[in-house]
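Severity: low
Component: inverse-folding endpoint
Summary: output formatting inconsistent between runs
Steps to reproduce: submit the following structure tokens with default settings.
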């Protein structure tokens, strides 16, 4: 993976906490890369969730509230109404 150098300014107290909890052989760079990777994934998941909620609202607006499919799913799992 290609890397690019950047400058990051951290609050002093946060940097001290990082140093306290940093593993012996763990590089600060790797710790930051892992933290940023997790945050990007979290934000991607949040954006996907927001798209799902928006799409659900759009479908509900167009088609109205749909009946729950839980009973049908339960019946299919139990073998009722099955057409194998």
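Observed output (run 2 of 3):
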């Amino acid at each position: 993976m290609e890397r690019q150098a950047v400058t990051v300014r951290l609050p002093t107290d946060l940097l001290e906490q990082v140093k306290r909890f940093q593993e012996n052989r763990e590089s600060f760079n790797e710790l930051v890369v892992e933290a940023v990777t997790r945050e990007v994934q979290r934000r991607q998941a949040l954006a996907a969730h927001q798209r799902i909620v928006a799409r659900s609202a759009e479908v509900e607006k167009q088609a109205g509230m749909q009946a729950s499919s839980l009973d049908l799913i339960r019946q299919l799992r139990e073998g009722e109404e099955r057409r194998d």
